[in-house]
Write a structure and sequence with these properties.
The protein is mostly helical and 608 residues long. Helices cover 76% and strands 0% of the residues. It is globular.
C-alpha cells in the first residue's frame, strides 16, 4: 500500500510538474510572440493575450495539488509547535479536513459551472467551458495528495485519509445542517480569521469563509465563487507576475545575479561591516529586475549569509541583514506587490513603478545606516580594502546588461510603450539569452528546478489573488468600504490622523497576515477613504506596500524572517531580535514616505 501510494504520488508529481512548467514557458512564449508581432512586424496576434490568461489559470490549478504534498501553500504556521504530539495530530486533521471540504465545494461548484457555460471564447474561438475545465481535475488530484501524502510515515499515516473523509462527510451533511442565522460579514470574518489562526493555507481560508457565508446567508453560490476565482486570477495584467518571477529565476541560474553582487562588492566592501553593506546594495540592485522579496531573501541567505558568518559576523545579525535587505525588492520596480495592488485597485502599475524608486533607495539607505551603527557598537571593522576605479569599472561593465534591463523595464512602462506583461516577457527573453551568451550555457538540471519552483510560486500567488476576488466581493456587497469611509470622516477628521491610523492598521495586519493577502484585502478597502482625504492613489499604494513589507520582518509571522531562518537553520526568534534596530530605522523612513508625498510623487510631478 505504502509503495503503491508513493509511486502514484511520484507519477502525479512528474506529470503535474511537467505540465506546470509547460504552462509557464508557454505563457512567456505566447506573450513574447505577441510583442514581436506588434513591435517588429506591426501586426497583432489577438489570441496571445487570451491564450496567456488561460495558461495562467491552468498553471494555478496544476500548482495547487503539487503544493499539497510539500505543504507549500502560503499559510501562517508555528501554532502547532506549541501543542503536545497528540494535539498536533488533531490540529493537522482539522486543517486538512477544512481544506478537503473547501476543495470538494470548489470542485462541485466548478462542475456546475461547466454545465451552465456555453459559447466560445472571443479570441481563441474555443469552447468557453475549457477555461474552467482544469478545476475539477485539480481538486481530485488535491484530495488524492491530502489522503496519501503521509502514508510513508510511521505515525499519522492515515490522518490524511481521515481528513478527506471528514471533509466529504461535512459536505454531504451541509445541506441538512442548520447554521445559526449569522450575518454574512460576521461569518466571513470569523471563519477567515479562525482559519488563519488554525494555520490553514490563506487562500483556502478565504474560500472557506465565502462558502460558509453562502451556506449561512446565500450570498454567492459555489458556481459563482469558482467563476470569480478564475476571473480574478485570469487578468492579463497578472501574467506579469510569473514572467517577472521567471526573469529573476533565470538571472539567478544564469549567473547574472552574481554579477550584481560582484559590482556591489566593489562599491562598498571597504565600508565598516562591508559584507553586510554589500548585501543591502546587491539586494537593491537585484530588486530592479526581480520584484520578489521572497526570492531575494532566499538568494541572500544562500550566498551572503555564509560569507558574513565566515567573516566574523554573529549569525543572527547576518541573517537579519539578509532578511531586511530583501524588503526593498517589492518597493523598487519591478515589484510583484505593485502588480497585486494594481490588480486589486486599478492604480497604474507604471506610475507605481516610478513612485517606488525614491522610497526604495530611502529604505536601502536606512538599512545601510543601521548596519554602520550596529557595526560601530560591535566593533565590526572594514576587512577589505577599497576597490580601485579599474575594478569598479570592470565590475560595472559586467553588470551593465542587468542594470540596463532594470532601466528598460521602468522606461517602457512609464512611456506607455509596453504593458507590464509585455515588459515581463521581454525581460524573460533577455535573461535567458544573457544567461546563454554571457555564461556560456545554463545547467539543464538547475534550469528545470528553477522553472518548476517558479511555476509553483506563480501558482500560489495566482491562487491567492483568485481566492481574494469572491472574498472581496462579499466585503463590497456588505458595504465595508463605505463603512470605512464613514468611520474616517466621523472619527479621524484630520488627514494626518487618518494616515497614522492607516499605518497602524497596516503594520498590525503585516504582523499577523501574509503580505499578498493583506494587499489584496486592505488596498481596495482603504483606497476610497484616502481618496476622500485627498491622498494620491499612487502615494496610497506605496504606503500600503511599504507598511506590509516591513510587516514581513516583524514577529510573530514575518515571512522574510522565516525564509532566512529556515535556510540558515537559525531559531526564528533570534532573527526577529536581531531585526529590532533595522525595524526602528525602517519605521522612521516609513513616516517620511507617509507624510512627505514628494518622496513618492516627486518623479511623477517632474514628468518621469
Amino acid at each position: 500500500m505504502r509503495k503503491a501510494a508513493s509511486r502514484l504520488l511520484d507519477a502525479l508529481d512528474a506529470g503535474l510538474g511537467a505540465a506546470a512548467v509547460f504552462c509557464l514557458v508557454a505563457i512567456a512564449a505566447t506573450t513574447l510572440a505577441g510583442v514581436v508581432s506588434r513591435y517588429i512586424f506591426a501586426a497583432s496576434l489577438t489570441w496571445t493575450g487570451e491564450a496567456g490568461q488561460w495558461l495562467f489559470i491552468y498553471l494555478i490549478f496544476l500548482g495547487v495539488p503539487l503544493a499539497h504534498r510539500g505543504r507549500l501553500h502560503i499559510a501562517i504556521g508555528g501554532f502547532e509547535k506549541l501543542l503536545p504530539p497528540r494535539a498536533r495530530k488533531i490540529h493537522q486533521v482539522l486543517i486538512d479536513a477544512a481544506v478537503a471540504y473547501t476543495t470538494i465545494v470548489l470542485m462541485t461548484g466548478a462542475q456546475e459551472l461547466l454545465d451552465l457555460i456555453g459559447g466560445k471564447s472571443t479570441a481563441l474561438a474555443l469552447p468557453a467551458w475549457l477555461q474552467y475545465a482544469g478545476i475539477p481535475a485539480s481538486c481530485v488530484a488535491g484530495l488524492i495528495y491530502i489522503a496519501l501524502r503521509d502514508l510513508d510515515r510511521d505515525e499519522g499515516k492515515y490522518l490524511g485519509a481521515l481528513a478527506v473523509a471528514l471533509g466529504t462527510a461535512f459536505h454531504f451533511a451541509a445541506d441538512s445542517i442548520a447554521l445559526p442565522p449569522v450575518a454574512p460579514l460576521t461569518m466571513l470574518i470569523v471563519v477567515f480569521l479562525g482559519g488563519m489562526a488554525l494555520g490553514m493555507p490563506i487562500a483556502f481560508a478565504m474560500l472557506l469563509s465565502v462558502f460558509l457565508a453562502d451556506l449561512s446567508a446565500g450570498v454567492l453560490p459555489p458556481a459563482a465563487i469558482a467563476q470569480n476565482v478564475v476571473r480574478g486570477s485570469g487578468q492579463f495584467l497578472l501574467l506579469a507576475i510569473p514572467l517577472f518571477l521567471l526573469a529573476g529565476a533565470l538571472m539567478d541560474v544564469g549567473g547574472l545575479a552574481k554579477r550584481l553582487i560582484d559590482f556591489a562588492h566593489t562599491l562598498v566592501r571597504h565600508m565598516r561591516a562591508g559584507l553586510a553593506q554589500v548585501t543591502i546594495v546587491a539586494a537593491t540592485l537585484y530588486g530592479g529586475v526581480s520584484g520578489s522579496s521572497n526570492a531575494n531573501a532566499a538568494l541572500n541567505a544562500r550566498l551572503m549569509y555564509p560569507a558574513m558568518v565566515k567573516d566574523g559576523y554573529k549569525p543572527p545579525f547576518a541573517a537579519a541583514v539578509c532578511a531586511a535587505a530583501s524588503m526593498t525588492d517589492n518597493i523598487i520596480p519591478p515589484s510583484i506587490g505593485m502588480l497585486i495592488v494594481g490588480a486589486a485597485t486599478g492604480i497604474s502599475v507604471g506610475q507605481m513603478f516610478v513612485a517606488g524608486i525614491v522610497p526604495g533607495l530611502l529604505f536601502a539607505g536606512a538599512l545601510m545606516l543601521t548596519v554602520w551603527a550596529v557595526a560601530r557598537t560591535r566593533g565590526y571593522e572594514a576587512n577589505a580594502k577599497r576597490a580601485s576605479w579599474a575594478e569598479r569599472g570592470q565590475a560595472m561593465a559586467a553588470a551593465i546588461p542587468v542594470i540596463a534591463l532594470a532601466v528598460f523595464i521602468v522606461a517602457t512602462l512609464r512611456l506607455g510603450i509596453a504593458t507590464p506583461t509585455e515588459t515581463g516577457a521581454m525581460a524573460v527573453a533577455f535573461a535567458f539569452a544573457a544567461g546563454l551568451w554571457l555564461n556560456r550555457g545554463l545547467s539543464p538540471a538547475e534550469l528545470w528546478r528553477s522553472l518548476r519552483q517558479t511555476a509553483l510560486d506563480s501558482a500560489m500567488i495566482g491562487l491567492l489573488i483568485g481566492a481574494a476576488t469572491p472574498f472581496g466581493f462579499v466585503l463590497t456587497t456588505e458595504h465595508v468600504p463605505q463603512a470605512i469611509v464613514e468611520f474616517g470622516e466621523t472619527w479621524l477628521v484630520q488627514k494626518w490622523v487618518m494616515l497614522l491610523f492607516l499605518n497602524g492598521v497596516l503594520l498590525l495586519a503585516g504582523m499577523v497576515m501574509d503580505i499578498g493577502a493583506a494587499m489584496l484585502i486592505f488596498a481596495p478597502l482603504f483606497l476610497p477613504l484616502t481618496t476622500r482625504f485627498g491622498v494620491e492613489p499612487v502615494h496610497f499604494a506605496l504606503i500600503v506596500i511599504c507598511n506590509l513589507m516591513i510587516g514581513g520582518l516583524k514577529p510573530p509571522f514575518g515571512i522574510l524572517a522565516f525564509i532566512v531562518a529556515t535556510i540558515t537553520r537559525l531559531p526564528v526568534m533570534s532573527v526577529f531580535v536581531a531585526l529590532i534596530p533595522f525595524l526602528i530605522a525602517l519605521l522612521a523612513a516609513l513616516l517620511l514616505v507617509t507624510f512627505i508625498p514628494a518622496l513618492t510623487m516627486g518623479l511623477l510631478w517632474l514628468g518621469l
